[in-house]
Amino acid sequence: MTFGEEGNEQARVYDLQECQKILDIFKSHGHDELDSARMYADGTTEKYLKRLNIEAQGFKVATKNFPSARFQKLLDALEAKQIPLYYLHAPDRETPFDDTVQALKKEHEQGHYDRLGISNFTAAEVANFCDACKKHDLPPPSVYQGLYNAICRSADPELLTELRKQNMSYYIYNPLGGGFFVGHLSNESPVEAGSRFDPKRGQGQAYRARYWNDAYFNALEKLKPICAANNHHNALSNEKGDAIIIGDSSTNHIDQNLKDLEGPPLPTPVIDALDHAWMSVKAVGAAPRYHF
Fold this sequence. Notes:
Blueprint: H1 16-28, E1 33-35, H2 44-51, E2 60-65, H3 71-78, E3 83-88, H4 97-109, E4 113-119, H5 123-135, E5 143-147, H6 158-165, E6 169-173, H7 202-211, H8 214-230, E7 243-244, H9 251-261, H10 268-283
Parallel strand pairs: 1-2, 2-3, 3-4, 4-5, 5-6, 6-7
Helix pairs in contact: 1-9, 4-5, 5-6, 8-10
C-alpha cells in the first residue's frame, strides 16, 4: 500500500524509479508475490503497478476489493485480464453470502480471477462463507489475509483453528504493528507527517486506535533489552502455505526487513519474552480484534 501518488492516504513512495528499485530488491531475495487493494492510496497503488508493468517482470499481484464493487474496474486499473489472487477485502454483512458467492462464480467462470481469498472475516464467517462456496460449486478461498504479530495474537486459536479446518493459508499483515514495534515511538514522541501513526490522517487514527495505548508501550519497553541482544514466535506454518506481508518506505527498509525474515529462529528467552508481552496486553483487553 506504500506505492502511490503523493498526497494520497497510505502512499509513502511516490517516485516510480524508487518503486522499481524496491521491487528489484524484493525479487533479488527470491520473492514474486505483491499485495495491493483497490482502495490503497486512493487507487493510485494499482495505477503505479500498471505503469511499472509488473506482470512483464514476472510478479504476481494479489488485490482486494469489497463485495459490492464492480470487478471490471479492478481489471481495468491493473490492465489485467486475470487477477492471480483476488480477495474480498471484508465481509459485506448487508448481503447474504449466497448472493456474494453467486456473483463471484460468474467472475470466476469468465476467468477474471484464478484463486480466491478473504480478509477481515470472523472465524464463524469463514465457515459460513466456505459452506456457501460448496453449496454453489465455487472453489472456496485458499487464503485468508488478516492481522497477526508477536504481540497481537487475537486470531489464535479461534481463527487459526477454522483456517486449518478449511485448509486455508494465513497471510498476515502488520507483522511489526505498522512500524510501532520497531520501538522508536513513545506516547510523547512526534510522528512523521503522512506516516502510519499521523493523527491528522484517517489511517493514522486507525493505527493509533489499534496500538497506541499504555499496554503496548509498556510491553515494548520490557522487550527492548532482550530484543536488542538478539537482533518472533508465531503459529504460522510453511507447510500450510502461510506467509508474512511486509511493507516498505525505502530501499533500505525493504532490504533490512527481508534480511531479518531470512534469519535463524529466535532463542527460547526471546520467545518467552514475546509470549509474556502478548499475555500482558491480552490481560487488560488492549489487543485489537483480528477482524473488521
